[in-house]
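Lecture notes, part 5. Sequence design as translation. It can be helpful to think of inverse folding as translation between two languages: the language of shapes and the language of residues. The source text, in structure tokens, appears below.
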């Protein structure tokens, strides 16, 4: 697994933890809502990937 892929997965994991924690903090423990929060956590990772100027793992970054 490349460094870029590991960085993306680590970023997604952090986003999932934060998103799910935010939903739980509101008192909502509905599994569907927690799954929606986990899915929404993909947005920042996708946004960084789509940015060719992102130094960590943007599309224009060819580090491995």
């Amino acid at each position: 697994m490349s460094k870029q892929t590991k960085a993306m997965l680590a970023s997604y994991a952090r986003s999932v933890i934060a998103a799910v924690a935010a939903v739980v903090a509101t008192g909502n423990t509905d599994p569907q809502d927690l799954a929606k929060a986990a899915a929404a956590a993909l947005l920042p990772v996708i946004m960084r990937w789509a940015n060719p100027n992102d130094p960590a793992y943007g599309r224009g970054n060819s580090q491995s």
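The translated text above is only one of many valid answers, since several sequences can fold into similar shapes. The CA atoms of residues 6 and 57 lie 10 Å apart.
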